[in-house]
Amino acid sequence: MCGRDLRISIILIAVIFFLGFFLRMENAFFDDPLYTDENGLQYFQESDSYYNYRLTENIVSGGHMGDAVIDGMQWDLHSYYPPGVPLDYPPLLPIMASTLYALISAVAPVSLRGTCLLMPAFTAPLAGIVCFLIVRKFYGNFPGFVAGILIVSAPFYLIKTVYGFYDADMLIITIPLTALLFLVEADCSEKNRILVSSCAGLFLFLFSITWSGWQIMFYILFASFLVCMVVFRNSENMKDMLEVFLPAFAVLFVLLIVLNRLELIKLFVGPLRLPDLMNHSLWYPWPDSYATVAELQPASPDKILRYISPALIIMGGLGIPLYLIRGRDSAPEILIIIISLWVLTGVLMLIKGVRFIMFLIPPLSISAGILTGIVTEYSSTTFKKIKMVASSIIIALVLVQVFVSWGMLGDLKPGYDDYFEESAKWIAENTSTDSVIVTEWSYGHFYTSQADRPVLYDGRLAYIETLPARTLWYGPSIDQRIPSTARDYWISRALSSNDTTLSVNVLRMLSSSGDESYLLLENYTGDSVMALEIMEEILSLKRSRAREVLVKKYGFHDENALRVISRTHPLNSREVVIVIPDQMINSIAMRVDRNYTVSEDIYSRIWVRGNHTEEEVIDPSGKSSLVEMDGGMYLMNRKYRNSLLLRLLLGVPDDRFSLVYGNPEIKVYILQN
Questions:
Q1: By the 8 A CB rule, do 163 and 142 touch?
Q2: What is the pLDDT of residues 281-314, one digit of tens each?
């Protein structure tokens, strides 16, 4: 590489990085004081950031991510509590953040949260640099520059890595791309091939401690290895392919065996459990909580177009076919095989969720760089006059993507505000450290972090990531059936019911013994459906009557009935703190215009008068009710009109639920013991 070419490359790398950085800092200047704390720092963009932040705080304060070490395993005693869960979360992001914080704070005053807020803007653009280096190696600076700009400005990647989005998304493109870079370098190198390939294995291991879905990349590379073995089976290149892939795999497995046994188990057991994981009846008889997660809904064509961008889809979609049409080109076959399988896998994964759009962005960006290289090279040698036209069209497409992506950041604001922070602070200062919080799962990570109290259920849901490995990873004292979505069912059952006895019993049961009662019933009956039916019946009864039903109706021995009742109807329970943000109305109702025309389907109209609600029946045969709240008018199924959740949202007095804190967005209740 000549000096001039090197200087140009450095300049282009700087442009890629700083464009990616400044795009991601666009929302950092959102200055509404409602979304900043007393130190002027914004709140994080979404809930998962608070989960990562809490684990990072644990490293800074205690040296490891867990709240405690039990039987040699780190445990998270804030999530899915009681009993908590063995900590399975990939540690690289919290380790990086805590290390960076230690280095910076040694020379300058900086907070841990300030460091975490800034990390995505600095880290995510590195993917563009790696992509530039891969494409540049075979096609030169301009195609590499195009690929780098496309990846740092891809809408979905940009939105997921802006200032304040403290999640592993900032790393899950850069690390596998770096592994690919080393594999390609190993293919091109003869002298240091094994060493360079080993570096690829190191980055694959780093990916295993970055994202729980890292195995997908391994399967792609292993499939690519098998394809290469077939393609080069009768050529002298087969030995080269062995030297390119096998050292990487060897280093990966050695590091997994020594440092990451859980991911090693998942790597081999995961494919065997794939049919179960794809089955919506996986959690039967409990509902599938994951079916309601927006990011896990199949990606529609309009979302694919919007989140990847038309420019990247067009250019990335044409790159590989054009390479194949032209025959052997500058790029090696190994690169084309890997990114082709990567694209194919990414397309298939879109069926399982919008979330996996991210996985398509790296191979499409490389393919777009290949397209640029082929077009500019071909026009330079064959049609020199149209090279400028071709380059101009490519530049125009890239600029359109950049400006469209930039425009998407205009309304971006933090996911939390002062009202949430104030409610969390009140809980931290006024409730027992042994209390447990009940709220919608999407708010769980925020309150575990900011209120420092455990929650019954949070954004990790039923820890589906651990399902393939529980048999081999869990110790003998941990029931492999938990976590499960049963907890989501019971929380929803308590909040949606109009039976106060049922609601109180469910919440006291969960906060005291977690899943023990229905697991015990399942053990006794050998039938999960029957266990659910028994639970439904006895939880609507008082303790003495519930015990009588177990003995006389279901034939339980007194001792076994008492064991069940001591869990479903504990004499004493932990303090239960119920957090009800106004937004929870959306789980049972749909907002409508205040001028909504009352139709024949409306059963009643409900509103608050002083400290009680009033209901006007409009049509006894109607199926819906209209509810007037300060935040607007809502339409709901009539069966929820007397639900506990609606009463808590409206602030209706109740002897069992004491309103202890409120602000314009959130109410906090204590369940009387």
A1: no
A2: 789 999 999 988 989 899 999 999 999 999 999 9
- Answer yes or no: are the C-beta atoms of 196 and 179 closer than 8 Å: no
Task: Determine contact, residues 241/221, Cβ cutoff 8 Å.
Answer: no
Taking each continuous run of H as one helix and of E as one strand, the counts in the chain are: 27, 12
Instruction: Enter the tokens of residue 484.
Output: 């499960």
**pTM for this one?**
0.95
d(CA 503, CA 497): 7
Give residue for tokens 């963009």: 45
Q: With a cut of 90, say whether residue 499 has pLDDT above it.
A: yes
- In sign, the C-alpha dihedral spanning 618, 624, 627, 631 is negative
DSSP 265-334: HHHHHHHHHHHHHT-TTTTTTS--GGGG-GGGSPPPHHHHHHHH-HHHHHHHHHHHHHHHHH-S-SS-HH
pLDDT digits (tens, 9 = 90+) for 15-24: 999 999 999 9
Give the closest residue to 123 by CA, choosing from 201, 54, 24.
24
| pLDDT (0 to 100) of residue 273 | 74
Tokens of 171: 């790393």
Q: Are residues 437 and 445 in contact, defined by beta-carbon separation less than 8 angstroms?
A: no
Burial 275-313 (b: 16+ CB within 10 A, else e): eeeeeeebbeebebbbeebeebeebeeeebeebbbebbe
Residue 327 has pLDDT above 70, yes or no: no
Cα-only R_g, the chain = 28
Question: Is 510 in contact with 573 (CB distance < 8 Å)?
Answer: no
Residues 6+ apart with CB under 8 A from 185: 137, 196
Scanning 382-417, the segments in alpha helix (DSSP H) are 387-407
Cα–Cα distance for residue pair 296/180, rounded to 1 Å: 27
Percent of the chain with pLDDT over 70: 97
Q: What is the pLDDT of residue 380?
A: 59
> φ and ψ at 607, to 5 degrees?
-150, 165
Total residues belonging to the chain: 673
> Are 585 and 629 in contact, with CB atoms under 8 Å apart?
yes
